[in-house]
């Protein structure tokens, strides 16, 4: 799952960056790249959310080991 989240994060960054770059430079295709750019933002948010939840789960699992 970690690899999937990492691929989602990287592809989200690429999609969002491509949409931002075309929009700021008034390149052709800027309107068509708005939807993939939005999907890129969703990928980024989802991947960061998974990494955050996984980190909290690991911290919680370590804390349970010390309880008596």
What can you tell me about this protein's structure?
There is one protein chain. This protein is mainly alpha-helical and 68 residues long. It has one domain. Helix content is 81%, strand content 0%. It has 2 helices and no strands. Helix 1 packs antiparallel against helix 2. The chain is rod-shaped. The mean pLDDT is 90.
Brief summary of the model shown:
By secondary structure, the chain is mainly α.
Main attributes of the structure:
single chain; 68 residues; mainly alpha; 2 helices; rod-shaped; membrane
User: Quick one: overall form?
Assistant: rod-shaped
Question: Distance between termini?
Answer: 32 Å
H/E series, N to C?
HH
Kindly estimate the percentage of residues that lie in beta strands according to DSSP. under 5%
Unreliable sequence segments: none
Number of domains: 1
Count of discrete alpha- or pi-helical segments spanning 4 or more residues: 2
Radius of gyration: 17 Å
Count of individual beta strands: 0
Transmembrane segments: 38-57
Keywords: Membrane, Transmembrane, Transmembrane helix
Describe the secondary-structure layout.
Blueprint: H1 2-24, H2 34-65
Helix pairs in contact: 1-2
């Amino acid at each position: 799952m970690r690899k999937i989240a990492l691929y989602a994060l990287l592809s989200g960054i690429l999609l969002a960056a491509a949409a931002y770059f075309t929009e700021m430079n008034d390149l052709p295709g800027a309107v068509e790249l708005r939807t993939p750019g939005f999907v890129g933002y969703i990928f980024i948010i989802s991947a960061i959310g998974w990494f955050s939840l996984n980190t909290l789960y690991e911290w919680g699992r370590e804390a349970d080991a010390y309880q008596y």
